[in-house]
Amino acid sequence: MRRRLFVVLAALMLMAGAASDPSERLRDPAQETRARALFTQVRCLVCQNESIDDSDAELAGDLRKVVREQIAAGRTDAQVKTFLTDRYGQFVLLKPAFSPANALLWLGPFLAALAGLALLAGRWRRREATQDLSGEEETRLAALLDDEAP
Amino acid sequence: MTVELGAFALTLALALSLAQAALGFAGARRPSLAGAGEGAAIGAFAGVAAAFAALVAAFVVSDFSVTNVAANSHTAKPLLYKVAGAWGSHEGSMLLWCLILTGFGAAVAAFGRGLPAGLKSRALGVQGLLGLLFLAYTVFASNPLARLAGPPIEGRSLNPLLQDPALAFHPPFLYLGYVGFSVVFSFAVAALVEGRVDAAWARWARPWTLAAWSFLTVGIALGSFWAYYELGWGGWWFWDPVENASFMPWLIGAALLHSAVVTEKRGALSGWTVFLALAAFTFSMLGAFLVRSGVLTSVHAFAVDPTRGVLLLSILGLSSGAAFALFAWRAPALAPGGVFAPASRESLIVLNNILLTAATGAVMFGTLYPLIYEAVAGAPITVGPPYFNLVFGVLMGLAMLALPFGPLTAWKRGDLAASADRLKLAAAVAVLVGFIVFALVSPRKALASGGVALGAWVIAGALAEVAERTRAFKAPWPEVRRRLTGLPRGAWGMTLAHAGLGVFILGACYETAWKVEAAEALSLGGQLRLGAFELTLKDVGTVDGPNYLAERGRITVTRAGRPVCAPEPERRFYPAGKQSTSEVALCNLGVSQIYVVLGERRASPDGGPAWLVRSYFNPWVQLIYLGPLLMALGGLLSLSDRRLRFAVGRKP
């Protein structure tokens, strides 16, 4: 099923890894490394589900240029991200912000794991409770054992 | 004519599936009918097989009067891709799905001699119902054998990116995995109808789970390998919705494999095991729906049809909804099963299941969250790889830390301190490996070094378990040898699968952290520095392929002046679909690879031609594929264990 679905890929991804194109690069290697790290966190807005680091789409190229310019102008990573979200909304970030609105997204899986652990702990406790003999059973057991002893 | 016969056989298979469902359920009460149900199951498989053969034949002879062939084939295509074209489209792959679904039904009918008659008959009935739903969908909504009124002279060909051996075999393996879980699903429903889920049931269901999971492992690895070398940017996993769709049943299948062991050996967790058995195939169907409906944006999703999506969602809702309703009704009555202490193998396997399920939840939630968020908040949001890497990574990291303890801790009441004592050496090895990587590999990366240590911990832990079982380094050699040869295949299978997971972690962490990238527009004789390597573009020639034209670059790779290899990447143009692709060249250096892509031609500063050459050094990348291969082999090795033969249930 994947195969037919890839028809668009040829156009989209042929020259993927587009961000490595030497003609786009920043002079300062440290700044370029920072730009590349940021690219992997920014979505190509017109693509289906790609970062601007991978995408060869024209708009991805424009966004790369914007990010590179911002970095060359001395902005921090956080400032660049704010700049992007102000313009394009949080849709542009591949990593959703850790905000109250997204709390369920970030914490949900861990809460599920904790709930599972709580259930497991409950099972242990229940078992222990059922395993213990009641007072009456204890006396009967003792009596039975006494019977067998001699 | 062949095509019409195939279409007829397909419709016949639909009718036989209905008969299989009816006779299967009736046969559980009247044994005289059960044999007829088995016959119907085998007949349905024969019918779908005939239809599938007709479709393959139409592709081989390039019969463009069949819509599907005209849309996906071309006379100049090599034979392998003509055959693979049969499952290259939505319609064809649905037929493959049905072929495997009925095939598993026929396998239960033919090889399930040891199963109790009632359970077998009901399981065949459920499998028949599933066959009925999917065959009806194929026949009425996506018929691959439909004719075209005006057949074209030439077909539109298969997308050249898909003309690749790894991808030719990727769907069959993937579907053997996806649809293999249908048998487990049917067994679970049958057991719920009977109201009995016990150790014997788990023993019958487990081999099918193992088989499906092993195939799925191979299928996913092939798809990932294809993406790695065909898409041309050296990545191997993108957390794309389509990849996630195949990954969720795999994770649930892995959880099921483990919980079924608890149910089989200790009679505990039966309700949970049945739940997972239902969930595994539900996730398979969810995957089929997500990929074909287009509700999620994916780089892979294209040419999808919303009506088909609605139909698939209905099939999913109907079958899983009914199954989970039955579960909710019957599960409280299931026997609670064996007792176990907090420190026991049962508890550790439950921990494994909790973490695997939570990780599946994270993958599912992350995949569907944009849909939910947009419906609730009205604004679009993206959940991309950074989210998955973080959340999935933390949950799986915890699972990996606990993993080696499982096989070393006793059932029912174990001693974690004693297990820890047996793992001292493994822990020392892991820490040492982590420190060596941290100290020697530049640039220094603490987290990735930790990941490598975790991989080493899982591998060393698996070996420590074998050493413990065989009393290696403690008993004299003859005894160790006797114990080594006496270990059941199931034990070796587990060791191999766990070690394979460790191998994968090593490769995944190392490759991701320390891959090196370089790209430059090179004119002939130009050089590109890639880490310690020098790449020189010697020559670019033209090649005339069977159904493409190509530019082929000759590049030499040297390291400190000494030749390493001579990759020849290509840039192909397929005239049939007017598409170009990059044919990546790979150099193997031990388990690492140099990856070279020949890009577009552009003008160099001095006016002559230049080619954009991109290259990656992917250290340890082959471990990423070796690991899953070992895991799948481990699964198949366990499957070959005498004690686990399909349906050899009643013998001890």
Polypeptide structure, described:
The complex is a heterodimer of chains A (150) and B (652). Chain A has 150 residues and is mainly alpha-helical. Chain A folds into 2 domains: 2-97, Orthogonal Bundle (Helicase, Ruva Protein, domain 3), CATH 1.10.8; 103-148, no CATH class. Helix content of chain A is 57%, strand content 0%. Chain A has 6 helices and no strands. In chain A, helix 2 crosses helix 3. The longest helix of chain A is centred in the C-terminal third of the chain and has 29 residues, at 103-131. The radius of gyration of chain A is 30 Å and the shape is rod-shaped. Chain B is an alpha+beta fold and 652 residues long. Chain B folds into 4 domains: 1-163, no CATH class; 165-384, no CATH class; 423-514, no CATH class; 516-618. In chain B, strands 2, 3, 4, 5, 6 and 7 form a 6-stranded antiparallel beta sheet that branches. In chain B, strands 1-10-9-8 form a 4-stranded antiparallel beta sheet. In chain B, helix 1 packs antiparallel against helix 2, helix 9 runs antiparallel to helix 10 (270-293) and helix 9 (241-266) runs antiparallel to helix 12 (345-377). Classes of the chains: A mainly alpha (150), B alpha+beta (652).
Instruction: Give the helix level of chain B as a range of percent.
Output: 55-70%
**End-to-end separation of chain A:** 76 Å
Envelope shape of chain B: globular
Percent range for β-strand residues of chain A: under 5%
Quaternary organisation of the protein chains: heterodimer
Largest sheet of chain A: none
